Amino acid sequence: MEIKSYLSNPRLKREGQQVALTQQQVEDYIRCANDPVYFLENYMKVVTLDRGLVQISLYDYQKEIVDACHNERKVVMKMTRQSGKTTTTVGYILWYVLFNEMKTCALLANKERTAREILSRIKLAYENLPIWMQQGVVEWNKGSIDLENGSKVVAASTSSSAIRGTTINLLYLDEFAFVPNNIADEFFSAVYPTISSGTTSKIIISSTPNGMNHFYKICTEAKQGRNGFKLIEVDWRKVPGRDERWAADQRATLGEDKFLQEMEGEFLGSAGTLISTSALKSLSFVDCLKNILGGLQIYTEVQPKKNYVLVADTARGTGLDYSAFVVVDVDEVPYRIVAKYRNNVISPMLFPNIIVQAAKYYNNAFLLIENNDAGGQVADTILNDLDYDNMFYTEEVRGTTHLNQRMGAINGVRTTKKVKRLGCNALKSLVESHKLIIEDYDIINELATFILKRDTYQADDGCNDDLAMCLVLFSWMTTQTFFRDLTNTDIRQKLFDEKIKQMEEDMLPFPINNEEADRAEKYSLDDGVLWETGRERSRYERIF
Length: 544
Description:
By secondary structure, this protein is α/β, with parallel strands linked by helices. The protein is built from 21 helices and 24 strands.
């Protein structure tokens, strides 16, 4: 009987075509249906750089990948470069749609072109299957294929709308670490719940690391057994043919940082981060205890008689930068971040209400509001409209900003070059000397991309630094004598001894000016005398 091809492609069978099988073919078909590893090693062909089209031969770790995809619902693979992760996953997806009815697989990547390239690999492997093993083809397009058993594969970019409204049985996210954070967050909030809610649906994620981002979060939680993902880790040592000599050549070509990230599979921050790589790697995040007020994530519950400081940075609420704040326990060193809030759509008119509610929750915490741009409106609303007066003020003396609590001074703090410079130096010292406990993923992620650009530190391209800037302002505050007097904590000697000062002067683009720091301390000490008499002293005692 003549087998009709699909659109004159002799390597594809048209739907509805009957093929007579030999007994051996029937037995092999059944074995393939029950064993995806056997199917791949006997029927899947791939194109190699040196040998052209060849039958695939799986390494041990590739068999582990196939077994995990087959037996687990959620798999995440942290893989070295050129390890065959995509080819292996493509093989499993080919098996999945061939031997299962009415299944839809979605291939998503950071770019639609990349996703379609993955689909082309599936098509190539499918075209090189024996005709008797194929399902008839219904549609064969650039972005999708439909088979007569009701199964299909679609390719798209990773976005919140890519597969919205589509029932997905198997979702594959390739090079997920390279999807921008904002898109990844939107995607997971919009799409992931529908995938994970099923009882048989699968999700497979693979990537080489690309900083301490959403992929880092998934892998870390998988390693700790917190998110239900099966974690597979493959570094260059597991790939046959790679030895120490190969590694030395790669180090020389890529550089140490690139080698560690792409071949060792280590999660590193962007190049030129304020915080050292070793310090970033020592930070670990935990799940928050609860989430209230539409985004206030609490990590440590309020404790009676403890002193807290809330530092806020305001954005315009247009979906770009975040309005954010952190709440810090300042009773002892190391300081601890007990809560954080960020929202990129809340308006400056509503943000003050969230700040005050959070501050009251944490024992009427003192507020330090960044008053650049819309922040000035937020600070004034808190003081004048919401009648919350536990606020820090600042004054400018001879070009230097000083912290105090005197009514009539500037409400909040303006982020000048000097304030940012001192704050960055102090933040670096606090984190690297383990005097600031950070357990929030978003903060760690921002610090990992808080880099030197044009003689100042700011977010890397496509990233945010709103929480990082809250910490910069908090760290600046810890250098102020007035703050130390309030909290009875003198950390200047601990943080800025001669060795650390010298390290910062060597590493940072804006070293601390000792003469300027001395002037700031003298002024703050003199200013502190104001609290010994009158109304200011009684207010001071009432709050603390």
